[in-house]
């Protein structure tokens, strides 16, 4: 590894019925049964890029690149933890952000080294753990399955943190899920749910937010358990 260090990243799943909020450099995923907090380290280092741009007609648009696809996984919709199904047809899509998982859903105590925290989260009887995988900076874009792939400049190796279900999980039939926005009311609800993502990436123009919603509606599909 470069200088014996690896930059920390967290896989953030893009799934239905989850509220994404961003405050005080913390991205929070929440629903009734689970809360997960991710401390963002450097907004310039995210591997998944979302940025405002212009098209050929000089109209506003949003570019989104490097959505990570984790094959062989499904998501437990109650805890938001990943379950390794060993089925190559199962997958979960998400964004890869430069950050660390906050243990027990709480902010780290001052003086603690974030890299040494356990990252265990307990919510509503669900135990989640942090699985760490380290990739060489030269192999990241080759080893990982990205859609809308674009070049990323990496200066260190990377450590990807996955939020996984701790206890043994019975793997039966997995369910295919996708996002469907059929009317303006559903669009507005989804815009509110992903406000944390738009805030994280500084997407604040209404036209660009609507464009992002349209793009994500075509991207968000996954398998749940």
TrEMBL record:
GO biological process, one term: CRISPR-cas system
TM region positions: none
Region (Disordered): 103-125
Biased composition (Basic and acidic residues): 104-123
UniProt cross-references to InterPro entries, sorted A to Z: Cmr7A, CRISPR_Cmr7_comp
Superkingdom assignment: Archaea
Protein name as it appears in the record: Uncharacterized protein
Organism (species): Saccharolobus islandicus (strain Y.G.57.14 / Yellowstone #1)
